[in-house]
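re: ur msg from earlier - yeah i can do the fe (ii) ion complex, just paste it... oh wait u already did. ok heres what im feeding in:
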Amino acid sequence: MILGIESTAHTLGMGIVHKGKVLSNIGDTYKPVREGIVPRKAADHHAERFAGLLEENLRKAGVGMEGIDAIAYSEGPGLGACLKVGLVGAKYLALRHGKGMVGVNHPFAHIKIAEGIAGIRKPLILYVSGGNTQLLIERGKGKFHVLGETLDMGAGNLFDAFGRGIGMEYAHGSGLAKLAEGGRYVPLPYVVKGMNLSFSGLLTQALKEAKVSGERDVAHSLFETSFAMLCEACERALFLTRRKGLVVCGGVAQNRRLQGMLGKMCAEDGVEFGVAPDEFNRDNGAMIAYAGELIMDGALREPEKCTVDQDYRVDRLRRHHY
Ligand code: FE2
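and the outut:
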């Protein structure tokens, strides 16, 4: 029985997993008003919610701390202040109850729970969230190769930054997707370099264009353009790698239009397409527990030795050979 703690950014998530089965997955997200994530405020939110969320998860899973075998936590990448709240909370619990700890790379957790639920072996992976946008394959267990990635911001940050730019109170991709409904297409900059992508010019132009063509049409076009870019890069990667499946994961993977476009492309190319339910694509604790259980044999450590790494890339994994 593994307790997972996720705290890389604006969400404090906890979850309990036993033999790949999710017994609880309850978290809470800090929602900044008219600003981006302020790390200090997000960290305060996580510290305030820590004890309450732990209690809710234990109750949902029907276990006490004595029934937990190990504590998995997100080791990085993420915001230092937020990561540290998760680490300190995990350490306190581990020392107090005499448990070992497992540091989990955050993208690795997104990827593994999505692959597990989709049931696709050795897929091409599109990991697309606020801070990250990467195309990856796993060549040996825990050995990831990044085929392409964003050269500036993650796709999620593109939507959030556009939302803030047009004055949305709580700028988030889901709210922007609502605003975009019924919009008409206006051309915006489209930048794909091989399997790499660039979104910053698209953001600048979209903010200018919003004053001319209106927010609805430009929001719609921002999604259409960036998702088409992701599809092109994925299709190129599929042909190059000859992988027979595509799994999309991360916060932006919740977008139904992106799911539809990728699914259609895969169907046309005879490739299997998989995506997990939303609760596992947003940042969540169950994925950390799930991945922690997977790597526990080689990665279980004394709490005193555990740290965080703000720049922990998925293609530089330590101890993730399961
Ligand atoms: Fe994430």
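cool cool. The domain at 2-109+280-321 is CATH 3.30.420.40 (Nucleotidyltransferase; domain 5). ping me if u need the other ligands too
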